Amino acid sequence: MDQGHLPGGGQSPPSRSSSSSSSNSSSSSSSKQNVGCRLVSSSAERRGPYRSSSSSSSSSSSSSSICCWRKQAAADGVVSDGLISLFNGLSLEESLQEDFGKKAKKKEKEKQQVLQLQKEKEWRCRDARKVIQKEQRHLKAIIAKLQEKRIEMRKEKTKTNREYLEWLERKNEFVAETARERRLADVVRERGETEKETVERQQQQKGDRKEKETEEEQ
């Protein structure tokens, strides 16, 4: 008797074994798919450096989109080596862009610091030049005053020397006159002449000398 047909022309319900086999096949296919996705996704994590949490805050949108693509691809079971390489390449590009941005900011900061130092150096040099110019003007004024004082001292010294020479000359004249008077007094005392007689004798001597000179000229 055929097991698939009941008496009276009716068809028997599907057997327990067939239903269990179909359910087992579907569950096994889904489990295989899930297992394959997990294996591929885990292999992708092992092979590539990509991690969604390692991205910076600036690239959070792109990393989240890549993560969504990866999850969808893992759910569909189509994650391949090429797609993994793409994920890893995008992650590397993001990290390079992030490093480049950091380096650019660092260079810009260093450039600004160098410019600030140059400005401060220029300011200090300008202030130093002003101080030096001020000191030079002060020194020039002092030198000019010293030169004027030296000229005045030289004039005073010249005047003093002239006055001293004049005084010395007067002194010599006075000494000579005093000596003459003393000699005259001595002569008068020796000869017993009076002052009037002495003057007359001197005038007579002068007259005699003039007559003698006149005779010699003739």
Radius of gyration equals 68 Å
Residues in helix, %: over 70%
Average pLDDT, all residues: 69
For the secondary structure, the number of strands is: 0
Q: Which term fits the overall shape?
A: rod-shaped
Biggest beta-sheet profile: none
* Percent in strands: under 5%
State the helix count: 4
Class derived from helix and strand content: mainly alpha
Structure characteristics:
single chain; mainly alpha; disordered N terminus; 218 residues
Topology:
Blueprint: H1 16-47, H2 60-76, H3 81-191, H4 195-217
Helix pairs in contact: 1-2
Biased composition (Low complexity): 12-31, 52-64
Region (Disordered): 1-64, 187-218
Coiled coil: 129-163
Give structural notes.
It is a single chain. The chain has 218 residues and is mainly alpha-helical. It has a domain at 26-110. The chain is 84% helix and 0% strand. It contains 4 helices and no strands. Helix 1 packs antiparallel against helix 2. The N and C termini lie far apart (212 Å). The relative contact order is 0.04. Mean pLDDT is 69; it is low at 1-59.
